[in-house]
Amino acid sequence: MSSHDISGLGLELGAGSDQGPQDGKRGQTVIGATSEIGTTVDQGQQAPGQTDREQALRGRIVYLEGELALMRERLRLVEETERIQTDFALAVSHELRTPLTLIRGYVQQLLYRWTTSEEVRRRGMVEKINVSSHRLARLVDDMLLITDVERGALPVVLKSVALPDIVASALEELRDRYPDGLPAIVIAGPPVWAIADGFRLEQVLISLLDNAVKHAPSASTVMLVWGEEDGAVVVKISDEGSGIDPADIPRLFTRFGRLERSLGQTNGGVGLGLYIARRLVEAMNGRIWVDSVRGSGSTFSVAVPIDNN
After folding, report:
1. CA gap 154, 156 in Å, rounded
2. Following DSSP, what letter does each residue of 87-154 receive, concatenated?
3. Are 284 and 300 in contact (CB under 8 A)?
4. Whole-prediction pTM value?
5. pLDDT in tens, 198-227
6. For residue range 260-288, what is the model confidence (pLDDT) as tens digits?
7. Do 223 and 236 meet the contact criterion of CB atoms below 8 Å apart?
8. Contact indicator for 302, 281 with CB cutoff of 8 Å
9. Which of 46, 147, 283, 307 could form a disulfide with 193 if both were Cys (CB 3.0 to 4.6 A apart)?
10. 302: burial class by Cβ within 10 Å (0-12, 13-18, 19+)?
């Protein structure tokens, strides 16, 4: 190669080293490749952080889904409570309206027809007014008792009581509630003593007997028997009604746990009687339960501590 060529090559190389377009492109390519590699390295370094963020996001989603489920359950409970309160208000209004209507009607007849009505008829009206007023008083008493129960202020005085005397008082009260007559009630049991509040135990037995009478078909028999079982006095009240569906038993002793007849008609009341009975029995260190077969009647049992002294 000639010196001219060599010098030209040198010039060409020198120029290319400084700012030759081809070498410049190579430089740019190298720089670009370096940037891409750097970017790749950066992404590789950020990958663990992104995974943490994704896990945190997933955890947050799971948490929010749980909160949403809780809110739905709370909403369901609120709706259920509102439904119960509405049913209760309707039941109370019905229970109040019925005796009030009877009382008002008979009072008006007595006022306007006192001189023209026979004494027997007037007496019959007064008796019905008396029954209706007692029904109102019982409803008010139940409402007040529920308030005491919920506040934990239920007054209970435990002492030795003769069970036959409690049964006799309960039956007397029941006859006053049904002046037109009761179904046959068979009672049987030994002279035993229990540790209980006599007044509260009588309330329980009246509630269970009243429930049995309401469910007893015409010409049927209600059984009331008692005795000693496993160191306790156990009272059993049986009816020959339609029985209780197994699905209804868990809510039977809850507030407003009214059941329906087989024909779909309610038995009246506001569903407080059995709930109050349960709370009273528990306050006397006892227990209450039911055995029932659909179509074969029911037996309600109450057990309270026995007094062997």
Report:
1. 6
2. HHHHHHHHHHHHHHHHHHHHHHHHHHHTTTS-HHHHHHHHHHHHHHHHHHHHHHHHHHHHHHHHHT--
3. no
4. 0.61
5. 999 998 999 899 889 988 888 889 999 999
6. 433 233 444 556 788 888 989 999 999 99
7. yes
8. yes
9. 307
10. buried
In contact, 95 and 256? CB cutoff 8 Å: no
Q: Taking the domains of the chain in order of start, what are their residue ranges?
A: 1-153, 159-305
Determine the topology of domain 1-153 in CATH.
Helix Hairpins (1.10.287)
**Which CATH code is given to the segment(s) 159-305?**
3.30.565.10
3-state secondary structure 143-211: HHHHHHHHHCCCCCCCEEEEHHHHHHHHHHHHHHHCCCCCCEEEEECCCCEEEECHHHHHHHHHHHHHH
At 91, the amino acid letter reads: A
Q: Encode burial over 41-73: b for 16+ CB neighbours within 10 A, e otherwise.
A: eeeeeeeeeeeeeeeeeeeeeeeeeeeeeeeee
Length of the chain: 309
- Count of CA atoms in the C-beta half-sphere (13 A) of 219: 0
Q: Are 277 and 204 in contact (CB under 8 A)?
A: yes
CA distances from 167 to 52, 78, 186, 240 (A): 73, 41, 12, 20
- Exposure string of 76-92, with b = 16+ CB inside 10 Å and e = fewer, is eeeeeeeeeeeebeebe
Q: CB count, 10 Å around CB of 257?
A: 18
Q: Rounded CA gap, 226 and 142, in Å?
A: 26
